[in-house]
Amino acid sequence: FQLSVENLRRSGLGALYEAFEKLKSRLEQEGLFDEARKKPLPPFPRQIGIVTSPAAAALRDVLTTLRRRMPGIPIVLYPVPVQGEGAGAKIAAALDVVEQRRECDVLILCRGGGSIEDLWAFNEESVARAIAASPIPVICGIGHETDFTIADFVADRRAPTPTAAAEMAGPNRIDVAQRLLNLKSRLLRQLAQTLEQRMQ
Length: 200
Hints:
The protein is an alpha/beta fold and 200 residues long. It contains seven helices and five strands; from the N terminus they run αβαβαβαβαβαα. Strands 2-1-3-4-5 form a five-stranded parallel sheet, with helices on both faces. Helix 2 (57-69) runs parallel beside helix 6 (162-169) and helix 3 packs parallel to helix 4 (125-133). The radius of gyration is 22 Å and the shape is elongated. The termini are far apart.
C-alpha cells in the first residue's frame, strides 16, 4: 500500500490548543495580562453595556441578575455572534463601537459554556487587543468556571460565569439600602452626642 502524508503536526491536545498557548505566551510577554494595566470597576455605574448574542441563554441570566440586584441601572446591548466564522472580528468591532459611543461605565462580555471550538472567537488576537484598548472596564464572563479564554486574561476582571459577571458589574440594592441605614444610625447617634455636649 501507499501512504501519502498531506499534513503533519505534533501530537498533543490539538492545533487549537497549540494556537491558544502561543498567543497567550506572546500577549503575556507584551504585558497585556499585567495587573497594573487593569482598570478598577465603578462602584455605581450609570449604565452597563453587554456584548453578547441576543439569543444566548447567558444574556437572560445576566439580565435577570442585574434586574434583581439593581433594577434602576439602564442596560445597553451590543448584539454580536459569539461563535462561528467571523465572530471574533464582529466582537472586536462591537468593542470599538462601545469605545466610540462612550455611553457605558462598565462592560460585560459574555456567553455560555462550550467546547474550545465554540469559545474560539474569544481566543482571537483582535478580540484581546480590543479589550486591552478599551477605556471602559471590561468584565469577562465566558463559559463555565473551568473554561478559560485569552479574553479572560486580558479583561479587567474575569468572572467564572456570566451570572457572576453581572454580580461584579453593579451594586446590590439590598446591600446599598443596608449601608444607608447604618450611615443614618451613625449620623443620628453622632448628632445626639453633639447636642448633648452642646447642652452641657
